[in-house]
Give the backbone structure.
Amino acid sequence: MRRSVLKVLMVEDDPADVELSRYELVRAGIACEVKQVDTEDTFVDALSSYQPDIILGDFSLPGFDGMSALQIVQQMTPNTPFLFVSGTMGEERAIKALKQGAYDYVLKSNLARLPSAVERALQEAHQKQIRNKMEQALQAERNLLSAIFDTTGALGLMLDKDGCIVRFNQAAERTTGYALSDVQGRHFWDVFFPPEEIEQVHTHFLHWHLQAQPLQYQSRWLTAGGERREILWLTTSLQEDNGAALNFICSGIDITQWRQAEDRVHRLSNYDVLTGLPNRSLLRDRLEQGITRVEREHRPGLLAVVLIGIRGAIAVRESLGLQLSELVLVESGRRLTGLMQHDATLARFGDTSFAMVLHVPDQDQIAMAVQEVIDVLDQPYHVDEHEGVYLESNIGVTIYPNDGDNGDALLQAAEVAMHRAMDNVLERFQFYTPALNSQVSHRLQMASQLRQAVQKKELLLHYQPQVSLQSGEIVGVEALLRWQHPEKGMISPMEFIPLAEETGLIVPIGEWVLRTACAQGKRWHDMGAHGLTMAVNLSAKQFAQKNLESMVRNALDESGLDSHCLELELTESASMESPEKSIEVMRLLKAMGLRLSIDDFGTGYSNLNYLKRFPVDQLKIDRSFVRDVTSDADDLAISRAVIALARSLHLEVLAEGVEELGQFDIMKENGCDKVQGYYFSKPLAVEDCTRFLQQHGKIR
């Protein structure tokens, strides 16, 4: 660092110039002491006796020139900064001086620049000294490293700046099975990693030079024999003057056996030995993590703990023995694992119990999850030579934060709820909060009864006529699903269709609807209703099925209905969920000759760019826009816009929910093609619809 009083040595023959230079330095706040010399002998003597902090030299003197002085400085005190202060130098001389090692030059006519030039030169000289010291220390480190590299017990690897192997010590040879001659000059990732990992390792290597501190990382290296060894590496770089990496030195420890032992300890501490599932300790940890995540991210929905007691496992143990009862529990764990979503946790909680941690959007989803658990565990077990073994399960459910604000409280509450379920003769599951039981019980009961309704043929179809506004004739009917419950009577589709969607029952139900509607359409055709279109709704789950085309084809083949008389209605939201895939499916269906219609148009979000590519025949204006079309200007505008859009795309338009003459007139005036609704007829049972068609001359 600079002294408190700057010692300046000036090579100058004019005392006035010396004083002017000193004056500018002092005026700039630089305390200095100036010594003047004007001959080579006095200059050389001053370098050793005076030991200046900086040298200011005129370019030419009568008996001594500045370039000679610069050369002497570089030989005797190369760390002392040298500046030219001259009357005139010329650009060519100035460039030559800077190349020879001068820090800067200042013209005597512009001495006001001298203080800043001196400060900068002193700073650069100081930085240069620091770099020199660092280079000396680094060179010493290189020498030391080179001396111990081949004798250390640690794995030693030296790479060039491109990642090619330069040196490879004996310890590394013993661990990897490669000799230096086998790997020298090759990229280390090509030698020690399988092909699928090479790109990732190479990319990681490209960032090594950015590390300010030695890099520690762990990786699995391939040996010459194909074995993977876990190696902990400490990597540092030797750098050039410009900071670029010259070499990378890697020192490693083979921790394969230690890692294997650590993994075994971790597994024994956190996983159940019998089922391989997380144990109670890991469950508690993940539950706490789930609670923290909900609080931190403010995630919507519910965090639920579902505790499942396999009470029947005790009976199996007592009758068939411990080994077979353990096989039953393993199978139970496997079945439950099949129900897990990506963010859920399944654990073995006790000797004969399992626990789930679920994040679900609402309470109804908990009910569905509980029903799935009951369904899979109620399936018979085939154990050894014993077939048809059934296990009874009971379930307790708690919800965060209603039933507890931490993991232990929730698990304790779940145990209480599970024991309530074991004591309850009628219900196999219980919520810790009793008020929730009746709500979920009703939903599960409905889901169970809906499954039975399919088997017991309680489902039936009603048909609502569709009328042409041009001819006034009935041109089609829409098949609408109904549930005739033996005790509750006719159940609203608004109540059971969403339940069918959630449980997946909509798929077999939808197939039944399609087959039944096609068969009925064929019967009416045979009775004379030629050209009558049968419209059938497709659910989003049906539309996503891979076998949709074959299912539709089978329904047509079995019934004998002409494909041109079948119209499949797709909801707008389902069509736009994956537009490109929807287009592909629609084209397959259209190739069969049937009609396609977009149902409830206007209630979803349609990308018109995709809509114009959909191979559909018709848009259906949703009843929500038709209902107030006579009194609401917005609904009227929307209806007109849909009709105009359909016209531009050469599509037909059908308005549903037409219940009044005014609605009918507006639709007709604005060019709608068809309507359906209570103005003409409510949905009718088969016999009633047959009579309706007879009355309107469609059938004999």
